[in-house]
Amino acid sequence: MTRFLPLYIPVFSATLLLSAFLLFGIQPLFGKMILPMLGGAPAVWNTAMVFFQAMLLAGYAYAHLTTRLMGVRAQAVLHILVLLSCAVFLPVSIPLGWRDPPAVSNPAFWQIGMMTVAIGGPFFVLAGTAPMLQRWFSLSPHPDSHNPYFLYAASNLGSMLALLLYPFVVEPLLKLKIQSIGWSVGYGFLILLTAACAFLPRQAENKKETAKSAPANDNALTPARIGLWLLLTFIPSSLMLGVTTYITTDLASVPLLWILPLALYVGTFIIAFARAQPVTLKKVLEWQSTFLLLVITSWIIGWQFNKALVVVVHLVLFFLTALFCHMQLAAARPDARNLTAFYLIMSLGGVLGGIFNALIAPQIFTLPIEYALILALSGFLRYQTDKMQSFAALKCFFKGAGKDTLAHTKIPVMVILAAIALSLFTSRALASFGG
């Protein structure tokens, strides 16, 4: 068995990287197919993101349930069979009967239905691959199997490569048909790599006994802990869509500009779950304070003379806020016994953030102020969360939220953050009355 040990990290890392590359590569690929058909509005991309997040949740639920109900071998056989069966939906294309959108003002649910028929199967099984493979690695004889979360960085690296290569290499050089065929070939290679991961030697029984005998206090899935994970994933997800809508609607209409927030979002996971974090939480908070004050100032004084610079400021603020949330999330993660549950709850928080922005906010807000409101909510998270494992701690957390200060000023954080929503609301209202 020991002769296989050098293969574990390269094989698992390559499989996770390719899986994530395909998972995130299909998003701009299919988005490129449907955006012209539906008008290319930011709402179309936001609806697509809700679909992707919902399918990610479904894939994580599949990985979690099969983990609870099956042994590794049975789960591996099932997963490979599902991968093979979903290949019937390839190559990626808009299915017949779904090429003429209905003449309605908001075709969001039609779009979600069309995407489910076209790419729902492959996206679902790809989504379940990452947590499943990390679970398999945690039951291997490798010395690092007790902490499989470092493989999450390899997965997010694949996501980042897909998002950055698409606008600069894939989209300008390859036609959509070639892109679709290439994606299908990559899917075939993924099946082979997944089979290699599945049938590497492992010692599942010994690992199970170890897990049963280990103390469970530090790994308990308490309501407060689950709520914390949901909050730490809801805010970055909502902000990603909020900043995308803001910069593509109010500041600049540039093709594929919506990829940048998604790439930054993925990048925060790479940093937060890395073995050695390149930046401290304290430093992230200091930078976030500075850029938050810049955004507030730009909104209050109407600073729009250099739109490119304003876009950069908003993207940096989004990146720092998401990084802070995800660093706190990584610090609060459980051990490998609850790995699939952790990813499932993470995904649920992301879906809730997407649903709030794409489906709920347009119905309850006359003006699009959800971006500002979630920035205000992020002010509550400028606190250490390592002790927030009970309802009493959560109560103290919210009770003391108004005492924090921004950038070492004497102004309470919630006073400044309230000005964000007010200033954006006022500017939108004036613009609507003037136009």
Overview of this structure, please?
The chain has 435 residues and is mainly alpha-helical. 73% of the residues lie in helices and 0% in strands. The chain has helices spanning 5-38, 42-69, 72-86, 108-138, 151-173, 176-198, 204-213, 223-251, 259-272, 281-301, 307-331, 339-364, 370-378, 391-399, 413-434. The protein is globular and about 65 Å long.
List key phrases describing it:
435 residues, mainly alpha, 15 helices, 73% helix, globular
Care to give the gist of this entry?
With 435 residues, this protein is mainly alpha-helical. The protein contains 15 helices and no strands. Helices cover 73% and strands 0% of the residues.
How far apart lie the N and C ends? 71 Å
- Beta-strand content bin: under 5%
Low-pLDDT stretches are 204-217, 384-394, 397-403, 405-411
Arithmetic mean of pLDDT? 80
- Indicate the structural class: mainly alpha
| Shape estimate | globular
> How would you characterize the largest beta sheet?
none
Topology diagram in text:
Layout: H1 5-38, H2 42-69, H3 72-86, H4 108-138, H5 151-173, H6 176-198, H7 204-213, H8 223-251, H9 259-272, H10 281-301, H11 307-331, H12 339-364, H13 370-378, H14 391-399, H15 413-434
Helix pairs in contact: 1-2, 1-4, 1-5, 1-6, 2-4, 2-8, 2-12, 3-4, 3-6, 4-12, 5-9, 8-9, 8-11, 8-12, 8-13, 9-11, 10-11, 10-15, 13-15
